[in-house]
Amino acid sequence: MPPATASPALSSPSPSPAAPDKRLRIIDRTMRLHGYASHALIETLHAVQEAFGYLDPDLMRYVAGRLKVPLSRVYAVATFYHFFTLKPPGEHTCVLCKGTACHIGGAAEILRQVEAMLGVHAGETTADKKISLMIARCLGSCGLAPAGVFDGTIVGNLTLDTVVNKLQEWRSHDADHRKSAGDCENRDRCP
């Protein structure tokens, strides 16, 4: 099997000051602040996730090389912690809590219905790349159970209708936005 090749931006050990992707400089800064020590792995992976939205295999190889840790360790950490994802997220993210209080409050049925509605399972993104459906073991918002996170905003006392309305809002907003952009492209001058 041929060796995996890194993307051009990641082939050098350190991006040049004129590197086309400034997100790599953010990652390098995080590693530099921690002295390129192996104990900075989780903090560095957080920086990668924040900058790129997910942990790309090339980026994991890059971090492993810069921190001088085995790639297997980087992968183990990336797959152990729920926060990290190895797939690009959708434009919108719906996280449903599966903690005990949320489960008792009906989260399992809400999740089942949402999976059926979107045609994906938890941990997947819709085919149109619009919505990622995720689960969390606990959001720490048990007093709001069942709870979820919609594009980073915690919402409590969820019902199936609440979740469905939010997902439909995202879809209709995106459709309206595409329609407006299309209308604008067909005019000589747009407002």
CATH architecture title of the largest domain: 3-Layer(aba) Sandwich
* CATH fold descriptor of the largest domain: Glutaredoxin
Biggest beta-sheet profile = 5 strands, mixed
Total DSSP helices: 7
CATH superfamily of the largest domain: Glutaredoxin
Mean pLDDT: 85
The multimeric state of the shown protein is single chain
Task: From the alpha carbons, calculate the radius of gyration and give it in angstroms.
Answer: 20 Å
Distance between the termini: 55 Å
Instruction: Give the CA-based shape.
Output: elongated
| Structural class by SSE content | alpha+beta
Binned, the helix content reads 40-55%
CATH class of the largest domain: Alpha Beta
Report the portion of residues in β strands: 5-15%
Q: Major sheet: order of its strands?
A: 2-3-1-4-5
Q: What is the number of domains? A: 2
SSE arrangement, N to C: HHHHEHHEEEEH
**Low-confidence stretches at least 5 residues in length (pLDDT < 50)?**
1-18, 186-191
Can you count the beta strands? 5
Describe the structure.
This protein folds into 2 domains: 8-80; 92-185, Glutaredoxin (3-Layer(aba) Sandwich), CATH 3.40.30.10. It has a 5-stranded mixed sheet, with helices on one face. The chain has helices at 22-33, 41-52, 57-67, 71-80, 100-104, 107-118, 160-185; strands spanning 92-97, 124-125, 131-136, 148-150, 153-155. The termini are far apart. The chain contains 7 helices and 5 strands. Helix 1 (22-33) packs antiparallel against helix 2, helix 2 packs antiparallel against helix 3 and helix 3 (57-67) crosses helix 4 (71-80). A hairpin with a 5-residue loop joins strand 2 and strand 3. The protein is of the alpha+beta class.
